[in-house]
Specification:
The protein is globular, with a radius of gyration of 36 Å. The strands form five sheets. Strands 1, 4, 5, 6, 7, 8, 9, 10, 11 and 12 form a ten-stranded mixed beta sheet that branches. The two termini are 42 Å apart. The chain is α+β, with helices and mostly antiparallel strands and 948 residues long. Strand 2 and strand 3 form a beta hairpin. The chain is 47% helix and 15% strand.
Length: 948
């Protein structure tokens, strides 16, 4: 009978089934190691899935908007800001409008939404207003606090799920109201207590949840016409009334378009749920900006690489423990692919369990967060939205990481000689020079990718470079990942070179060095895992430090830190029967502020060109004020001389964010706050604006009639140009920017005196010079310096006291808080988190290495080594592994991050946090070594002798 050597049908499938069965049995026998691998893969998959779900859950869907805004009504009518009949609203977000014609039509007359409601509907109204509530202060007195209020029949069945009664009962009498839970906490009251407002005293009989506001916001809910709500209180802001249509007939898009022509915006249930045109309401849920996208891709790639290497270290230890049974399998006739499949099948088993559990855990955790947030009354999450694509992508990446983590040890085990494996079970795999050669090749490719990305990002026209940002980000991110992979492959060479001369080291370090060089199959995965973790940590530090520096640089200063500017030009609302608002007494404003705040250090009146006699109040139809003669409507600015323009591309992109011509006071966004752009005064005013003593040159300039400018951009050859313009005569500017044509140009002598921070004012001009130029000057702002930022209660008291002076119900009280001082604390929090991740990687790999070296430690104990030597050896091994891994990782993380920031221009300049990086380099290895020394077992349990 002839011998049949043909392949068995479905032999590969049978061998794969055998590999799956053996892998499953090995997993059940080594539950601790298997659980570790599952957790390593599970946690990042759960984190990515949960983060994607939470990010998507922050975006409101049209159905949720309809539910929370309309309840069960059909539509809502409200006024729409429009200057002509060509303005069109968004079909879902009705407050978002667009038009191709920005010209103000003097014949355009908006209609009242109440008069445009079609027949056949029941109409419910909701009026938003502000009430002044008398609140008890902590010092025993009382203050008037402005609070949001709504006049609405909130418990009407048509508003089901828009308004929800939480506690108490509906308001029945005219002196009963409902409030939000935040109002109870804000005013320290309970149900049944009475609340005193400017419109009467009311009994609080229940708490109400508004689906459009978080419960923490203090809101009062009255019924339409309740108390004095039929007339506006003196000084209250204009109130908006919205009209809800209850009925069965839907409001169509054609009807909405007709209403838009009359300045009426409509949120329709039928249109929002089935938009006839694309809606821009989900613009916030579109692609992330370049900075967020690039940062997320880099951090995500490095995180997956770290997880894969950690899992690889665990698989390497497991494969060594399997070598005997795998060698028996090979001796019985199994081919090398079958032997490899046993280990890779374990990766598939564990990876599948991990990614499924991770996705379920991440989605369940996100759902729990959303549910708890909604239960607590937060509107941050309109609903739970699980995005399938990111979830599947996270699962696929996790499974791929786990599979690749098992491939390398599987190939090493399959290459072991069968006879050597049967003899000792510890026959080393001969790797040869190929890992180092491949590592050098990948390192060259990584350098080429990084260089190409940097070149593409820094050369050529900036507008063209912006279009290449995805390619630049891909090259730089790919180069960073390839660099880490290359360093991992070269780790064995690094270990060999670094441990070649160790005779001068103490005994534990010398033994650790020789053990690392002799057992590189154990050392390389451990160093590689720490390397990937340190790369992730250092990259996160550089990106975070650069982002915080950018936030500080772009902070919009309204004044110096802890300064408040209060208007003196006119009262916001005229008194009844008067044509114009009465003047504000600066002494009264200063006295009220000093009476309520003990931190006021000084006050200073700032004068400037005013518009008191120029009627700039926009009319109801949005038209400009009448251009009457004899009324001074001029304002002033300093011109930018030739050669001092901020370099930019034709599309307006700034070429260099650090250029002195693009920064400083009034740049890049111009005035922000209540300071007069041009201050008329002397040394006292300049001192208040600078927050310090001015220079002798600035004092001399003011005394001689010159101008002290706040930014060197406006000064050239000792001169500056003062331009005047009429605010009633705008001219079209780039995009939707409103510009003004200069009416006069006056060249004046100038000296630069720049403040430490970009306070928004052009400069200070002496009163005599302003008088010669015919500038109408009056009190503009009272500037006050506080010694500390006021607490919320202090702000309430100051706001209430100032409201009495201004004779209004509410006054904005803004104290300049300064740049974000929490940046350094946040950076150190990131440092701590990064160090913890790196330390965890070092701990995991050290534990796996100690488990793999158990036989060596038993040999040491057998020859009489004291327990302290074994503990010192464990600490020395952890120190060498963590030191080498963090050193290589910091280099692999910092360099690509710097190139990434510079090439993509996500921030103005990259920042290297040297001190946190030094802490990572020193603290993590030392801490890991100390923990390894503490937790290493001094006495090993008696073990059965291994067969040789």
């Amino acid at each position: 009978m002839a011998l049949d050597v043909a392949p068995v049908p479905y032999g590969r499938w049978h061998s794969f089934r055998l590999a799956l069965r053996m892998a499953r049995r090995d997993i059940s026998r080594h539950r601790g190691r298997s659980l570790l691998i599952i957790l390593l893969i599970l946690l990042p998959v759960a984190g990515m899935t949960g983060a994607a779900a939470l990010a998507q859950s922050m975006q409101e869907t049209p159905a949720e908007r309809v539910q929370y805004q309309l309840g069960s009504t059909q539509a809502r009518f409200r006024s729409m800001p429009a200057s002509n009949a060509e303005t069109v609203q968004d079909p879902v977000l009705e407050t978002a409008t667009m038009t191709r014609n920005f010209t103000i039509d003097p014949d355009f007359t908006p209609r009242n939404p109440r008069d445009a409601i079609p027949a056949g509907y029941e109409v419910l109204t909701e009026t938003q207003l502000t009430l002044t509530v008398r609140a008890r202060a902590s010092h025993g007195g009382a203050s008037d606090v402005p609070v949001m209020a709504k006049a609405v029949d909130a418990l009407n069945p048509a508003f089901t799920r828009k308004y929800t009664l939480l506690q108490g009962r509906p308001a029945a009498a005219r002196d009963e109201i409902l409030v939000s839970p935040g109002a109870l906490e804000r005013f320290g009251i309970r149900l049944g207590d009475r609340l005193t407002t400017a419109d009467g005293t009311f009994a609080v009989v229940g708490t109400l949840r508004d689906a459009t506001y978080s419960d923490g916001n203090p809101i009062l809910f009255l019924k339409p016409g309740q108390a004095a709500m039929g007339r506006p209180a003196q000084g209250s802001p204009l109130r908006e009334t919205m009209y809800y249509l209850v009925g069965s007939k839907p409001v169509t898009w054609d009807q909405i378009r007709d209403l838009n022509r009359y300045g009426i915006a409509v949120l329709s249930r039928a249109v929002a749920l089935d938009p006839p045109v694309p809606s821009g309401a989900a613009a916030g849920s579109g692609p992330m900006d370049a900075a967020g996208y690039v940062t997320g891709v880099l951090i995500g790639a490095l995180a997956l690489l770290e997880v894969g290497l950690l899992a690889g270290a665990a698989f390497a230890v497991g494969a060594k423990r399997q070598v005997r049974e795998l060698a028996l399998l090979a001796a019985s006739g199994a081919e090398a692919p079958t032997v490899r499949a046993v280990v890779t099948a374990a990766g598939l088993w564990l990876g599948t369990i991990a990614v499924v559990a991770g996705a379920v855990l991440g989605a369940g955790g996100a759902a729990a967060v959303v549910g708890i947030a909604r239960h607590l009354g937060s509107v941050r999450f309109p609903g739970f939205h699980l995005d399938i694509l990111p979830t599947v992508a996270a699962m696929a990446m996790g499974l791929l990481a786990c599979f690749l983590a098992a491939v390398v040890p599987a190939r090493q085990v399959a290459r072991q000689a069968v006879l050597g494996a049967l003899k000792s079970g510890r026959a080393p795999a001969v790797l040869g020079p190929w890992p180092a050669r491949v590592g050098v090749l990948l390192l060259v490719v990584a350098i080429i990718c990084l260089a190409a990305g940097r070149t593409l990002g820094l050369t050529g026209d900036l507008d063209a470079v912006a279009a290449r940002t995805p390619l630049v980000a891909a090259l730089l991110t790919g180069g960073a990942v390839l660099a880490v992979v290359a360093l991992v492959l070269l780790t064995g060479t690094f270990v060999k070179v670094l441990t070649a001369r160790t005779a001068w080291l103490p005994l534990p370090l010398r033994m650790a060095a020789r053990d690392s060089a002799r057992n590189r199959s154990r050392t390389v995965p451990a160093v590689a895992a720490v390397l990937a973790a340190a790369t992730l940590a250092s990259a996160a530090m550089v990106l975070s430090a650069s982002q915080m520096q950018e936030a500080t640089r772009t902070h919009m200063w309204a004044a110096q830190e802890n300064q408040v500017s209060l208007p003196l030009e006119t009262a916001p609302v005229p008194s009844p029967g008067t044509a114009s608002a009465p003047p504000i007494d600066p002494a009264a404003v200063a006295a009220a502020l000093q009476r309520e705040l003990s931190t006021v250090q000084w006050t200073q009146i700032l004068k400037g060109p005013v518009l008191s006699k120029c009627d700039m109040q926009a009319s109801a139809d949005g038209s400009l004020p009448a251009k009457t003669d004899g009324v001074d409507c001029r304002q002033y600015k300093l011109a930018v001389p030739a050669g001092h323009e901020c370099p930019a591309t034709p599309q307006g992109r700034v070429l260099d964010g650090q250029d002195w011509r693009c920064n400083g006071s009034m740049f890049p966004a111009g005035a922000a706050g209540q300071l007069p752009p041009l201050v008329v005064g002397g040394v006292d005013e300049l001192r208040a604006l600078l927050g310090r003593e001015p220079s002798p040159a600035a004092v001399e300039a003011l005394n001689s009639g010159g101008v002290v400018v706040s930014n060197p951009v406006f000064e050239k050859d000792g001169k500056t140009t003062l331009q005047s313009y009429d605010v009633r005569q705008p001219v079209p500017g780039p995009g939707s920017v409103v510009a003004y044509k200069p009416q006069s140009n006056t060249v004046l002598p100038a000296v630069v005196e720049a403040p430490e921070v970009p306070v928004p004012f052009y400069g200070v001009i002496p009163p005599g010079t302003a008088s010669k130029l015919g500038i109408h000057v009056d009190n503009s702002v009272l500037l006050a310096q506080l010694s500390a930022y006021p607490e919320a209660a202090e702000q309430d008291r100051a706001s209430a006291a100032l409201a009495q002076v201004y004779r209004i119900q509410a006054l904005g009280f803004y104290v300049e808080p300064g740049a974000d001082h929490t940046g350094s604390e946040l950076l150190w929090l990131i440092v701590g988190t990064s160090a913890l991740i790196t330390l965890s990687a070092a701990g995991i790999t050290t534990g796996l290495a100690l488990a793999d070296a158990r036989a060596d430690h038993m040999t040491l104990a057998g020859v009489g080594a004291p327990p302290r030597l074994r503990k010192a050896l464990a600490g020395a091994q952890s120190l060498m592994t963590a030191s080498l891994g963090t050193s290589l990782g910091v280099a692999a993380g910092v360099v690509p991050s710097l190139l990434l920031i510079g090439a993509t221009r996500m921030f103005a300049e990259p920042v290297v946090p040297w001190l946190p990086l030094l802490a990572l380099l020193v603290a993590v290895p030392l801490t890991g070594s100390a923990l390894a020394w503490v937790f290493a077992r001094a006495r090993l349990p008696v073990s059965r002798r291994s067969l040789s």
